[in-house]
Design brief:
Blueprint (H helix, E strand, L loop, with lengths): L4 E6 L4 H19 L7 H6 L5 E4 L2 H16 L9 H6 L13 H9 L7 E3 L4 E4 L11 H15 L4 E6 L2 E5 L8 E4 L12 E4 L2 E7 L20 E8 L2 H14 L13 E5 L6 E4 L1 H7 L1
Antiparallel strand pairs: 1-5, 2-4, 3-4, 5-6, 6-9, 7-8, 9-10, 10-11, 11-12
Family: Belongs to the ApbE family.
InterPro entries: ApbE, ApbE-like_sf
Keywords: FAD, Flavoprotein, Lipoprotein, Magnesium, Metal-binding, Transferase
Length: 289
């Protein structure tokens, strides 16, 4: 996934054996979820002929199903099927290209959007109408965090903190009896008071324009969102959901309620004329209190 991972755990499993299991699980996830690998399950779906149906492997099916639900709930602020738009802006596997014209964007939008797909979750069947490309970069890391935490739980390790590329999930307690305390990430150069969260059966994810540059695309318009959000952190029961909700908030602000995000614990950092402004939604404020 082009990033790093870290796992802290309390348990009797040897570190070398645990690490080998984690590395193997992550490698398996890449073979299903990577849109950078044409041989992955996502790559095969993206290149499938028009009118075909593909039975998705279990991990990919879970990510598509959750992505579909959040796309519906957010009114399309999050969308797992905007690979054509990502490619048009030069952020995808084809590589850099000149800024797209209005015609380029219109063409890419015609080949984008989860509503163009037909998803049958019981059979795990996804219909490819032709030209639609999945891009799960706004949800896959979060799912991988959950998958590693589940892997550890299956080995009897129920006290752990899992982090992949800044997305985190905490289960159980630290050996000293405290929960897994983390501070929400601030972009470099922005000094704000720390916001500490106890990840006891919770997960947190942060999306931001500061990580890889301004690569955010509003799936509904094909352009960068106008809200000026530099970073969005979301807290949810799973890292997969937190990852997608943070991505949606980055796009939807300031219209959070219209994207179904008013009841989500969020911390946003927004660029302002006098400097960065921190916005904490009421659900997160209640958690902090």
């Amino acid at each position: 996934m082009g990033t790093t991972w870290r796992v802290l755990y309390a348990g009797r499993w040897p570190a070398a054996e645990t690490r080998a299991g984690i590395v193997g699980r992550l490698a398996g996830l890449v073979t299903q979820l990577s849109h950078w690998d044409a041989t992955s399950a996502v790559g095969r779906f993206n290149d499938a002929p028009a009118g075909s149906r593909m039975r998705l492997p279990p991990d990919l099916a879970r990510v598509v199903d959750e992505g579909w639900r959040i796309a519906e709930a957010s009114g399309g602020a999050f969308d797992p099927a905007i690979g054509a738009l990502v490619d048009a802006w030069g952020f995808g596997p084809p590589g850099r290209r000149p800024p797209p014209t209005a015609t380029d964007i219109a063409r890419a939008r015609a080949n984008s959007g989860y509503r163009r797909l037909a998803w049958r979750p019981v059979e795990r069947l996804l219909h490819q109408p032709g030209g639609v490309r999945l891009d799960l970069s706004g949800i896959a890391k979060g799912y991988a965090v959950d998958a590693i935490a589940d892997l550890l739980a299956g080995r009897g390790i129920r006290h752990c903190l899992v982090e992949i590329g800044g997305e985190l999930a905490g289960r159980g307690l630290r050996p000293d009896g405290d929960p897994w305390w983390i501070e929400l990430e601030n972009p470099p150069g922005i000094a704000l008071p720390p916001v500490r969260v106890a990840l006891h059966g919770l997960a947190v994810a942060t999306s931001g324009t500061y990580r890889r540059g301004d690569h955010t695309i509003d799936p509904r318009t094909g352009h960068a969102p106008p809200g000026g959000v530099v970073a969005a952190s979301a807290i949810a029961p799973t890292a997969m959901r937190a990852d997608a909700l943070a991505s949606a908030a980055l796009v939807a602000y300031p219209h959070l309620a219209g994207a179904g995000l008013a009841e989500v614990p969020l911390r946003l950092i927004v660029a302002g004329e006098a400097g960065p402004v921190e916005i904490i939604t009421p659900p997160l404020a209640a958690m902090i209190d």
